[in-house]
Amino acid sequence: MAVTVPSADRADTRPRAGGSVQTLLREFPQRLDRPLTSYYLIFGSSALLIALGLVMVLSSSMVDSYTETGSAYSLFQKQMLAAAIGLPLMVVASHLPLSVFRLLGYPAVLGSVALLVLTVFQGQEYYGATRWLEIGGLTIQASEPAKLAFALWGANVLARKDEMRQLLEWRQLLIPVLPGCGVLVILVLLGSDLGTTFVLMAIFLALLWVVGAPGRLFLGMFVLVVALVGIMIAVEPFRMARLMSFLDPEADPTGSGFQLLHGLYALGTGGVFGVGIGGSREKWGFLPHPESDFIFAIIGEELGLIGTLLVVGLFGLLGYAGLRVASRAREPFVRLAAASLTAWIVVQALVNIGTVIGVLPITGIPLPLVSAGGSSLIPTMLALGILLALAKAEPDARKALAARGPSRVQRALSWLGLDNVGAPTTKAARNQATIGSQQARRNRRR
């Protein structure tokens, strides 16, 4: 006869909350060390930043859009179109082989130089800067794709020299990367774009650091970059005015310090939890460029300290994942490209946030993935797709992806003659991948 145990006397076999949290903390290092951790961190942080950016562009641009076009959604629709173009580019790039990115660097940097030259002679001037070029009814900022082009080209040049054991002298480290960076910097400076100049120099320094430049050479290049930035600020009166307003914005509250002061007002108004999405007061004609350069201030006003910390945390997570890819890679190109792309996005984000909170002079540089502007969003999404492909090139990630078998996108690219970086290419490898995939499915059933 069965004996029923009273419920009060039964042992509680349910996992306790404290125990589960302790287990999660104990297993966190092992979970973080999984083969595709870098891939998922890059994908997750990028997706959240893009989604947040679309929401905040809609909120911050409604007033100006309605004033200029009669529709509150005109600028948001352009941003949605740019995201719709960038998303398939990001997905396709994440499945392309590394050889495509290495070949892409040379034509991309030549095309960027051509666009920058056209911008210098035929570009449109806004607010004292010539950064925009109109082609076929579309207005593009040529300096934005130049960042991606220089990162890929510089990584490929140094990777080839590393593979051929040519990086033994300082001349091999600097030529032709330094002259190439100089050409891009001069063309960008002719358009009075100091922010992009700073980002290009940051990419150059990141390449030197990863390739293992001697300490004296790296320090010398760093001092040279700082000196050039100082000279560029000193020779232009409006840059010097921005520097003075950064040091003391209240000295000229209706002039050079106006934008910074109202950005700080927005951040102060938001408090900890913000006034709510759509509730910003500064976007009603007070804060210049609330949808682009100073969108971080609107985030702080509407989402509060929590929202700003979320943005900073997502960029920190993206930076960690990118550097993780660079540190775990075996191929020189993967290390250099991952580091340069990560440096571009993270440094640009830090510069933008630094200008909004008043610790850096105003440079007019957008917040990656968040600020309005298709010229910035599309190249950045393409760069993240490349970073995803580099993450899948990690040795352990290759094995994990091979065990899963090819995805639909991989099969489509294979039909076009483009094999995925992690896809098996030989018959023996495909058979091994099939066996591994079947074994993984049996393990999941158990």
UniProtKB/TrEMBL annotation:
<keyword id="KW-0131">Cell cycle</keyword>
<feature type="transmembrane region" description="Helical">
    <location>
        <begin position="217"/>
        <end position="235"/>
    </location>
</feature>
<protein>
    <recommendedName>
        <fullName>Probable peptidoglycan glycosyltransferase FtsW</fullName>
        <ecNumber>2.4.99.28</ecNumber>
    </recommendedName>
</protein>
<dbReference type="GO" id="GO:0032153">
    <property type="term" value="C:cell division site"/>
</dbReference>
<comment type="pathway">
    <text>Cell wall biogenesis; peptidoglycan biosynthesis.</text>
</comment>
<keyword id="KW-0812">Transmembrane</keyword>
<dbReference type="InterPro" id="IPR001182">
    <property type="entry name" value="FtsW/RodA"/>
</dbReference>
<feature type="transmembrane region" description="Helical">
    <location>
        <begin position="173"/>
        <end position="190"/>
    </location>
</feature>
<keyword id="KW-0133">Cell shape</keyword>
<keyword id="KW-0573">Peptidoglycan synthesis</keyword>
<dbReference type="GO" id="GO:0015648">
    <property type="term" value="F:lipid-linked peptidoglycan transporter activity"/>
</dbReference>
<feature type="transmembrane region" description="Helical">
    <location>
        <begin position="196"/>
        <end position="212"/>
    </location>
</feature>
<feature type="compositionally biased region" description="Polar residues">
    <location>
        <begin position="428"/>
        <end position="440"/>
    </location>
</feature>
<keyword id="KW-0808">Transferase</keyword>
<dbReference type="Pfam" id="PF01098">
    <property type="entry name" value="FTSW_RODA_SPOVE"/>
</dbReference>
<dbReference type="InterPro" id="IPR013437">
    <property type="entry name" value="FtsW"/>
</dbReference>
<keyword id="KW-0961">Cell wall biogenesis/degradation</keyword>
<dbReference type="GO" id="GO:0009252">
    <property type="term" value="P:peptidoglycan biosynthetic process"/>
</dbReference>
<dbReference type="GO" id="GO:0051301">
    <property type="term" value="P:cell division"/>
</dbReference>
<dbReference type="GO" id="GO:0071555">
    <property type="term" value="P:cell wall organization"/>
</dbReference>
<dbReference type="GO" id="GO:0008360">
    <property type="term" value="P:regulation of cell shape"/>
</dbReference>
<feature type="transmembrane region" description="Helical">
    <location>
        <begin position="104"/>
        <end position="121"/>
    </location>
</feature>
<dbReference type="InterPro" id="IPR018365">
    <property type="entry name" value="Cell_cycle_FtsW-rel_CS"/>
</dbReference>
<feature type="transmembrane region" description="Helical">
    <location>
        <begin position="369"/>
        <end position="391"/>
    </location>
</feature>
<keyword id="KW-1003">Cell membrane</keyword>
<keyword id="KW-0328">Glycosyltransferase</keyword>
<keyword id="KW-1133">Transmembrane helix</keyword>
<dbReference type="GO" id="GO:0005886">
    <property type="term" value="C:plasma membrane"/>
</dbReference>
<feature type="transmembrane region" description="Helical">
    <location>
        <begin position="333"/>
        <end position="357"/>
    </location>
</feature>
<keyword id="KW-0472">Membrane</keyword>
<feature type="region of interest" description="Disordered">
    <location>
        <begin position="427"/>
        <end position="446"/>
    </location>
</feature>
<comment type="similarity">
    <text>Belongs to the SEDS family. FtsW subfamily.</text>
</comment>
<dbReference type="GO" id="GO:0008955">
    <property type="term" value="F:peptidoglycan glycosyltransferase activity"/>
</dbReference>
<feature type="transmembrane region" description="Helical">
    <location>
        <begin position="294"/>
        <end position="321"/>
    </location>
</feature>
<comment type="function">
    <text>Peptidoglycan polymerase that is essential for cell division.</text>
</comment>
<keyword id="KW-0132">Cell division</keyword>
<feature type="transmembrane region" description="Helical">
    <location>
        <begin position="39"/>
        <end position="59"/>
    </location>
</feature>
